[in-house]
Amino acid sequence: MIRFENVGKDFRKVRVLDGVELDIALGERIALIGSNGAGKTTLIRCLLGEYTHQGTVTIDGQQPRAERTQVLGRVGFVPQLPPPLKMPVGQLVSFAAAVCRSDSKRIFAVARRLGLDVAPILTRPFNRLSGGMKQKLLIAIALGRDAQVLVMDEPAANLDPEARHIFFSLLAERLENTTMIISSHRLDEVAPLVNRVVEMDTGRIVLDDRVAEDSKLSALFQVHLTLARADAAIAKTLGAWQFADRGAGVEWHGTVSGPDRLRFMGTVSRYVGLLSRIEMKEVDAAVVLQ
Ligand SMILES: Nc1ncnc2c1ncn2[C@@H]1O[C@H](COP(=O)(O)OP(=O)(O)OP(=O)(O)O)[C@@H](O)[C@H]1O
């Protein structure tokens, strides 16, 4: 589906991509990881046809640079930083729907599932939305269409736990017929979403590995924590994960998305001295949890 052949890129004589070779099949979900400046965004920009480069990039045989309109019609993109657009939200969605041969209603429906009601903000300039609202709208634009390729740069970074769970469920609905590339600095953020990990360092691919898929993207875990004593800092953290206090600040209940398990454990590990019990059980996501 996607092929990078000996792709190189220089910015003012500085080598930023160097002989990148990568073949990605339909249905593969790639975590593109690497430290700051490794070349991830540059590789994505080459895939989107935004840069000239050495070597060849093809999406299903088409070259993004030469056939940009056709290729972009098939690629959904969620950028790491929202573009500074002053365009009103309604106009932006109509424009995106027209370019992607989709329909505004479909984009609005995805936004609504993510918890963003677009109706009251149709006339508001995009750059006046909050970070989370912008992210939800950009995800809705990318997913509210029939894209065969989804390219996402840290897509869930600004989402609250509930919206993250819905986002993972939306991705789960697309697994069969979509190729995904998810870029991140942190493997723990994206590893549960993917079946292959590609790591870059100074413009080269230094690791290309398969990942075992033993948990569904849409999985949900019920979590019960018992603390040795109540503590304001952990209460605030658990509150941000939408956990409920079930007993004097020491008994906490909540749900965590399957792909967020590692992230959740990482967060609570900061308070390991306070944890006297932790129980995590997979539950049917369709069941309404208390
Ligand atoms: N437009 C540009 N002009 C000059 N240098 C650039 C440009 N874009 C990127 N670079 C340089 O290319 C290198 C790779 O940058 P890139 O943004 O691809 O890395 P990255 O892996 O996405 O990093 P991050 O995780 O920090 O976003 C960096 O050294 C960066 O300074």
From TrEMBL:
It comes from Accumulibacter regalis. Keywords: ATP-binding, Cell membrane, Membrane, Nodulation, Nucleotide-binding, Transport. GO terms for molecular function: ATP binding; ATP hydrolysis activity. It comes from the Bacteria. The keyword Transmembrane helix does not apply. PROSITE patterns: ABC_TRANSPORTER_1 (PS00211), ABC_TRANSPORTER_2 (PS50893). The gene is artM_3. Belongs to the ABC transporter superfamily. This is Arginine transport ATP-binding protein ArtM. The keyword Transport applies.
